[in-house]
TrEMBL record, chains A, B, C, D:
One of its GO terms (biological process) is L-arginine biosynthetic process. Homotetramer. Its EC number is 6.3.4.5. This is Argininosuccinate synthase.
């Protein structure tokens, strides 16, 4: 344990990671560099500076990563209409590779030989942090205190604080919730507490980002979302930066009760776990992206994307953002998006979002052909006969030889 | 054209297919057998008898296929959580193979040498009817009047009626709608009219099966749906036949504004088309099926199903229900469903359906392992280190050799 | 038929396409532009000029497309280790998109409004030519004489020649074979004749490009093939252009009895057909490409490529080279190839090709870790326990709940 | 370590596993049950009895599992035309789940609470054994001596033998090879030694099961292989049991130099490793199985199988035979095989195997349609026009809107 000289810690400023600072100093006799990022979790990050200083930390990094997060991670992921297990929008998963990347950058800048984080040994986040770190800096060492120490209860943590003079008000307010929570610009998540019983309904006062559908306005809200190359760039004609736009969508969605999710998901480490999520802006964005793709993407490209998507979602969920296979899939996905331009009109109402209109200079919708009216020869209905006959040929030959289909 | 002696026609009793009866008699000089099925479209089928008799039809088949439709087609499809292009629940597509099957059975019973239908040459339904027919009876002939005749406008059709003494009240009431509609126990669809402009919002009075979310009750409705082997068998503890259950879900969904959909889809014949759908019961069923699977299915089985699903959906959409590849995929899907048993509690509210609880004797959710509390050794957090290290090994080797990931 | 003014014909100079020239002139009263390409079929293309002139053709295109063919079509395809139905190296399929592209370029240059080709209505080639043409020039008209005329036997063709004064020596020598043949730099194919009986063994004298394994030298030939970015660039240290390199591989393979194939394949138009192929160079190239990838590609990238490959092969076989979905897959494939550099040593012997050595500056093979000997701590065997334990967790939970696996 | 009372050891009778017997007895103070299986490795298994007895083992299991191995593992795998990474026939991988299954059966019979094996911590076999064991008996404990002890060199092992009076002639003859070898009825494998340098060609005297292609007979051998439901049942008309048949194919293949393979593969534990394999019978079987499928399988079924195969191969390679996802894929594969009946005629010659004929009562090859001659109307070439036109429609619409494909 003596050969670690300096460790970069993903530091929230909360109780747990403050304990980790001290524990690392004591256990490894090493210097600790703290890294605190604003990725839109909705809490001030600047207070982490004083707390770190109080713990004797000399190198303190506090970064606003919101734009990078949305531009380089969230939006590329939404280009694929990514959903894990049919439901989950990967709000936690997609933030981890960015944190891993910054941890390694800081390790390089500060000459640290290790990184550390506050994720437990049961969850996905440890995997995501560490796979990313190893992929970006193969010789890095990783210290995961929750897998090493024996402070595995709140009481032991508090006792440790006392013994090591760690001010208990380091405990952030959010930790008083009965739930384990995580938030960033894409979502907020809830686990633990009564959610550990999958039959129990989540309590209304758990949700923080959205009003309940019941409490949402009685009148729908309409917005128009504009896309360029698969990414949203403007709301109701107003161009915004990625983070600003997602924040605005979160407000619109939250106000209309949109984006709540309650699921049981399969973790990469092998267990099922119950999670509740609020992803207001992401839920709107997914619907809108599919709608703009519906008129601009070629059919076979769209289908291929749908077939690749579950794999892509698994990669991100499992922590393989920083992998050559994710990059390879991204190359295919991005190749499809140059034509995904245009506008989608959306109706937000009491928990649901509906695409009610879509238009694009790149539209492949051809009203002359699609029409139920006379199409003036744009489409020759007689072609359908040959189309069907040859598509049926293999089936007819088989049936002719007595093949059964049941 | 002279060698067709008897043709079985999928006959709705409406204007179009009544014209087809006469047109077949005149054009092919053949006998017409009519087949009218109740698949839950919500219209009486018995009146078709008198209409067919008036047209001189001697062999008239009127079948109630509702239970078979839901049991053998809808439910097997939902076992796969089937969605086409991320949105469409395949309400029209899944009814066609049943019609094709009955057409062929009746052709066999009556010694007919051809079948006929009223689908146009631009749509998917012609393909679905004909692929099914050819697959089940390879020597059958198919007459698709809309691809052959020149009655390609309402005016010409009406004129034909006049000239051939077809009573115009044959025109069913639903045809007075500006939309082309199709309905069965799973859904009702709308195409044409102003929908041909993808930017135009569907008018509120178009929708027939559901109240608008705005008009839905201000209080949520809770129901519990019970599954056995992947199929729903009871609502709130009351066992029902498949068709009864789906009908009940339709009522519950419709009353809560659930299941409206407005999309642009890619037809198999090569064009994009706008469609609006109401699938109230199916929307509830999909959500519930995913929820019961979330606690009973193995992770890798669930992921494999998700990866196969788009292909399976394409097969059904394109008309390949009666094909060996659909059967092969079904074998895999069905193999996964023996453990999909249990109950899902659902909240229906103003257009959205949420799974709020799920439980099962076959649950794989293991609260002892998943807990954030002390798990008494059920899970050894130290295992995670080796897990991550070996999963990272290939990435570390590559990074160690200088591979870049961006 | 009168509205075609000028048609570009893919003209081989042989009997069939010479008849087509005249038939087009007579039937459509249009001007015919001939296009003859050298894609390595092993016959002089220049004689086609005099033949076309004799038929009154004024615009005659004769192109040497060998380098473009190999560089832009064959090599990109081999980057994916492409095989159709587990056996076929797509020698015919991959030449068609290039022909389609040139036909359209020439149509643009000459102001033609149609293209024509000599492929029959039963085969894949008509599909490949026409899909490519439509994709590149949507308004183009296509004339496929074999689907239109009634010259469906050799006798009728000869009679037509007589009546229209077409010199019968236009019939190319290769047409005297009992087989229908096609050749280019990648392969030569044989269909028809006794091959129409799948139980009959192909006769030894059918094969033209390779000696029989029995007749091949009794000593193996060793070569070293060098790759850059997934493409072969040198043989035994000598750099060559793409076409030169493939030609050289064909010679080496042919002399060693390599690359014969005898299969029954599934055509896109719905029937099974027997084909025999000689692909000497391609067979060597495939083996070598897999070998260089085996040490340079990441595991998951390699597996993803293997899973995508059958789809990619189907696209090419079915004629969708010029499609957005092929381009999308190509983007993923090409993304993987920047690291596919290095050398493969191959043993060629009496019909088989074996990779006996492979090395690369980009190798991911890490002998320190892979060794059976003491690895000095490069790999911690204890990591394997956690790796296995967590990978087994879902299986153990399921088994603990009584799940059966048989 | 004290709580293990009885352990079932996969015991070869060789030096390594004999040391393990003693080490287990000493380290865990537990009883050891030995299990030795004949899976066709070509060595007597009965001598293991005396050796185990000499080590004080009281419960000794010696089983002939050859028929079960081929019938229930090898043949089901070949139904999928399974190849890992384009080359490897999974000869080692497919034997492990059977051993795991018997270890657990014996643990149940003898009341053992643990299993043990002699696989190292770097390889795939530990994973395959242990995943299987955990999946079949979730509470089982696993002892993997190579991951625990410090006997990590031949010298230390020999010293241990001396100190613990283990007769050194326990060392089996095969261990004198410079290679690490493994054999069963499907193949023999070689790793280590000079093979750890991927550029080095394997030495001729390494290979044990096959003559070199150079040394094989100068005359080809022809055989006919008969299939029922996808499995081979007879050679040249003589019905044989599965193990007998595979043994016979091994002899035929080996005598003709067939089935040698030299590859670098990607292990599940994250490293690349060089392996050489001889799979004479399997190589013949794969070729023959594809050939019989080529005339009996529907095209889309065949393509779906090809797309699923790499995933299925990975499952087996990685040790997930005993998993619900493997069973799910198997259900799909097996569903396809009921029609895979008939005969394939094969030519074996100096290292290569060629299918020269195939026939079946279930053939879908329709010579009336496939013929180049007049087909008497079996196929209407005009159908191809509509087929192409509609398949091209989406491409034409896109091109018409200016979409580029390059």
């Amino acid at each position: 344990m003596s050969d670690i000289k300096k460790v970069v810690l993903a530091y929230s400023g909360g109780l747990d990671t403050s304990v980790i600072v001290r524990w690392l100093q004591d256990t490894y006799g090493c210097e600790v560099v703290t890294f605190t990022a604003d990725i839109g979790q909705g809490e001030e990050v600047e207070p982490a500076r004083a707390k770190a200083e109080a713990l004797g930390v000399k190198e303190i990094y506090i970064d606003d990563l919101r734009e990078e997060f949305v531009r380089d991670f969230v939006f590329p992921m939404f280009r694929a209409n990514t959903i894990y297990e049919g439901e989950y929008l990967l709000g936690t998963s997609i933030a981890r590779p960015l944190i891993a990347k910054r941890l390694i950058e800081i390790a390089n800048e500060t000459g640290a030989d290790a990184i550390s984080h506050g994720a437990t040994g049961k969850g996905n986040d440890q995997v995501r942090f560490e796979l990313g770190a190893y992929a970006l800096m193969p010789g890095i060492q990783v210290i995961a205190p929750w897998r090493e120490w024996d402070l595995n209860s709140r009481e032991k943590l508090m006792k440790y604080c006392e013994e090591h003079s760690i001010p208990v008000d380091f405990s952030s307010s959010k930790k008083k919730s009965p739930y384990s929570m995580d938030a960033n610009l894409l979502h907020i998540s809830y686990e633990g507490g009564i959610l550990e019983e999958p039959w129990a309904e989540a309590e209304e006062d758990m949700w923080r980002w959205s009003v309940s559908p019941e409490a949402a306005p009685d009148q729908p809200t309409y917005i128009t979302l504009q896309f360029e190359k698969g990414d949203p760039v403007a709301i109701d004609g107003e161009r915004m930066s990625p983070a600003t736009l997602l924040e605005k969508l979160n407000k619109l969605g939250g106000a209309n009760g949109i984006g709540r999710l309650d699921i049981v998901e399969n973790r990469y480490v092998g267990m099922k776990s119950r999670g509740c999520y609020e992803t207001p802006g992401g839920t709107i964005l997914l619907k809108a992206h599919r709608a703009i793709e519906s008129i601009t993407l070629d059919r076979e490209v769209a289908h291929l994307k749908d077939e690749l998507m579950p794999r892509y979602a698994q990669l991100i969920y499992n922590g393989y953002w920083w992998s050559p296979e994710r990059r390879m899939l991204q190359a295919a996905i991005d190749d499809s998006q140059s034509v995904v331009n245009g506008e989608v009109r959306l109706k937000l109402y009491k928990g649901s979002v509906t695409a009610v209109g879509r238009r694009s200079a790149d539209s492949l919708f051809d009203e002359r052909i699609a029409t139920f009216e006379d199409d003036a020869g744009a489409y020759d209905q007689k072609d359908a006969e040959g189309f069907i006959k040859l598509n049926a040929l293999r089936l007819r030959i088989a049936a002719g030889k007595g093949r059964e289909l049941t």
